[in-house]
Specification:
The structure is a homodimer.
Chain A: H1 21-26, E1 28-30, E2 37-39, H2 47-74, E3 91-95, E4 105-107, H3 109-115, H4 117-124, H5 128-132, E5 134-137, H6 142-154, H7 161-173, H8 177-189, H9 196-205, H10 209-220, H11 223-226, H12 230-238, H13 240-263
Parallel strand pairs in A: 3-5
Antiparallel strand pairs in A: 1-2, 3-4
Helix pairs in contact in A: 3-4, 6-7, 7-8, 8-10, 9-10, 12-13
């Protein structure tokens, strides 16, 4: 919760007379929240609204506590704990990328099925995976797969940018929307001008709308520097459609800004 | 979110002069939240605090949305759905109270174990229940057992007072704290003078502290009517200790009130 920079009022307790607006505007009051003095023109709410807002905040906080308790109740024990809490597993997942033969990751069909429509189709339709109790997943590292499975049990993952990208790809493949959204939000927080073009291309490839929009906004705010970027030249070669979409977004933004500027002439 | 009864200000826009406090106090302002006018003495916050409070509220609401999405993700499909979503079950629960032989309720050992330390001990220690894959539960109706199992999957149950009491007993037996707390909160909302003595005795029997305190408070606020109650006479016969505890709570309240009244003489 941010606290604002306090506006210390340098008020010369005026010697005006009369109940006119000048005098009123120099009247100072003390805010019952931040305890600072403020001028009439900086007045916010009445006391009742302040009290109500406080009650609303308390209610919301109670709701958050209730929901957090629910999450803890519904969460399975961490999948890092390979002891008793992972008992009664009836399937293993194997990351087939690693040649060394990584250890299989035990899991419960019921959990996989309830979290992913792809696992559901795979396991409920008596396909090879269901019969053998083994799901081989190619093009993924053991570490990524383990983090992915963990997330299905706990709705939690410790991310860095690489892991967020890897998990986003997995979540798209297995249609785990909640995880995809989790990765997208993380990637948006890591967005910068430096990684914006690569992130944009990545988001495009994996239908990550939230990341795509954020990256596009980052790029179109810095169009002057765009064509000098190495990744720009590469992208023009490799996938010029993506570059076209950047120019289209930029153009559309310019048109909107012009229209907005014309209609809301009171800004600025 | 309640809205307060607006304090319409009948202000005769005064003809006072001077910037003294009388004049200031008659200055009216318009609350930027409820849009009503208020007097200086009813002023709440400055504008910045109002804006900040609004931002805080938005942040809390976003957190609530995130948590709700997490709950939905972690929740298993409703146990009312006996179709595909309940597949891969490896245990059944049977309510042995009903003579008619109620249908067994299929479940997953992994879910039972993760929600209840009692099921955990039962199923992981190769006891009869684990070997046979059948858990017989006496003294419970099929309907209660089904609602109980449902809750373990979804953290949700539709309650009435009877069901809340039945589930509270089950949650105590199987140490499902989250459910016990859920039932307790429900029973507190249903508390009235009419059911307070029975609820008090029930809460006592099942270590339901939240309900116990609420019931005790209800009772000690109406001590003049207590001894005329039929349940009172029954309880004196059956479990006089409970009645003693009521009197002790009442006495302690009186002492505290007297002490509070003496030290905070500015109340009233």
């Amino acid at each position: 919760m941010r606290r604002h920079q306090h506006h210390r009022c340098n008020i010369s307790s005026g010697s005006e007379t009369g109940s006119g607006s000048d005098s009123d505007n120099n009247t100072t009051m003390r805010c019952i929240s931040c305890r600072e003095e403020y001028l009439r023109r900086d007045a916010g709410t009445c006391k009742e609204c302040y009290v109500e807002a406080g009650e609303t905040e308390e209610e919301l906080k109670r709701e958050i506590e209730d929901l957090k308790a629910k999450v803890i109740f519904l969460r399975f024990p961490s999948c890092l704990d390979h002891g008793s809490s992972r008992s009664f597993t009836d399937v293993v997942l194997i990351a087939s990328q690693d040649a060394a033969g990584p250890p299989p990751i035990p899991a419960h069909k019921a959990v996989l099925v309830s979290r992913s429509p792809v696992f559901k189709a795979m396991l409920e339709n008596e396909m090879e995976e269901s019969r053998s109790g083994t799901i081989k997943i190619s093009d993924v590292s053991y570490n990524t797969l383990r983090t992915f499975v963990c997330y299905l049990y706990t709705a939690e993952a410790s991310l860095d940018e690489q892991m967020a990208c890897d998990l986003l790809i997995m979540s798209e493949k297995y249609q785990v929307k909640h995880l995809k959204s989790y990765c997208e939000k993380f990637l948006v927080t890591k967005l910068s001008w430096d990684n914006s073009l690569l992130t944009y291309a990545f988001a495009h490839q994996h239908n990550a709308k939230l990341v795509l929009d954020a990256a596009l906004s980052q790029i179109t705010n810095n169009m002057d520097k765009l064509t000098k970027r190495e990744e720009y030249l590469e992208l023009v070669e490799k996938d010029p459609r993506l570059i076209v979409e950047i120019y289209e977004a930029y153009l559309s933004k310019q048109v909107n800004t012009a229209a907005g500027g014309a209609s809301t002439s009171k800004t600025g």
